[in-house]
Design a protein that fits this description.
By secondary structure, this protein is an alpha+beta fold. It is built from 4 helices and 10 strands, in the order ββαβαβββαβββαβ. Helix 1 crosses helix 2.
């Protein structure tokens, strides 16, 4: 799953904004925005640390200026020919335990299994679609409050988090206010 920053240009006379692909960015690892942000919160006493980041905060940790004109987009199916599945990251909630951090990622749907013979070209720049929704994905990082490199967990090509009841209930409370929110 590659993550990209996109410049977002306002549309003229109410037309949809245009997304222009900029840079591929790492979200995991000790140079990634999650570790940079959480490491500032760790005092050394935490058994678990609850945190959340907006898209703007993630962009800021990545060193992007003018975050209001930028987006982070994940390509969920980069190797599927003639398919565009792009989602914009809107917010991330995390719970950092000593050695791992499950996260809930709030995604805004842009294109879901959009069939086209020009997938690579379309991923470079596109107009924001009218109908978008929020969906959530649960992942985990192999790093927490006391150790780890903050790399993605390894479950084949899919990174799945096993959520114990306390962690699941926390994420459910965070996500609940967004349950019925429709985009545009």
């Amino acid at each position: 799953m590659p993550f990209w920053t996109y410049a977002v240009r306002s549309g003229v006379s109410g037309s949809a904004p245009t997304y222009i692909r900029d840079h591929k960015v790492p979200l995991s690892g000790k140079n990634g925005p999650f570790y940079k942000y959480v490491s500032q919160l760790i005092t050394g006493d935490e058994e678990e640390l609850y945190w959340d980041m907006t898209e703007s905060q993630i962009l800021s940790e990545l060193g992007v200026e003018h975050t209001e004109n930028a987006a982070i987009v994940v390509d969920l199916k980069p190797n599927v020919k003639d398919n565009v599945s792009l989602f914009r990251i809107r917010r991330v909630w995390g719970i950092s335990h000593p050695e791992w951090s499950p996260i809930a990622v709030q995604l805004e749907t842009l294109f879901i299994d959009w069939a086209t013979t020009e997938a690579d070209k379309m991923k470079m720049d596109f107009k924001e679609p009218e109908n978008r929704n929020l969906v959530h994905e649960f992942l985990y990082l192999r790093g927490g409050t006391s150790s780890g490199g903050w790399s993605w967990g390894q479950v084949g090509s899919v990174n799945a988090a096993l959520l114990w009841p306390d962690d699941f209930n926390h994420f459910a409370r965070c996500i609940q206010p967004y349950t019925y929110l429709k985009m545009r």
